[in-house]
């Protein structure tokens, strides 16, 4: 299937590994020119090289990178200095740490909101009008399954990502954007095989004494699909939503969790 996005330009945040890398890889394989952003320069450069060496990448497809913190004004300025106008934006930032809400002060909340709500809004604000003028735009926000089913120890994430979800629900449905072939959707990952999930398992291991592998096996067992998701399949879904075939999907929360969410809606 030709997704019809070859030659477009995409900004992919948190792209050095995990779900962000999965999205960048899928877009590059469709012929999309990608600017990858992440804070860690070494990991980012390694990720860029993987995509450049990928035999599935069309040879004229650009893979560029910016080592910066996209949650800061300086980081966003660096991303737009690399390329001014983007047709596709994938927002993504590491989730806030788990804990007890009684221990979080105002600074912790502001940091979570900056990363997981306000930065995506700033990126939307910076790009949607140009997308509308050109008659094409796709914004994908990587959020979390906790938007549908809050996780008690992830209160910072629950709050910040739910705020973003409410904002997107309104702005995505404005006639100025929807009628101009500009869509905004959220991808809600459940448990995927990423460094973050393994890091959280390691933290749980230290508290409980259980082996990391045992904890991960428990997480797999709790998913009806009996496995963790992969960044490749997550990226493929992202690419579809960015495609010409995703034009009639906007303001939606696409849950990818192997069936773990027990609700009807």
From TrEMBL:
Signal peptide: none annotated. InterPro entries: NAD(P)-bd_dom_sf, SDR, SDR_fam. It comes from the Bacteria. Pfam families: adh_short_C2. Belongs to the short-chain dehydrogenases/reductases (SDR) family. This is SDR family oxidoreductase. It comes from Caenimonas terrae.
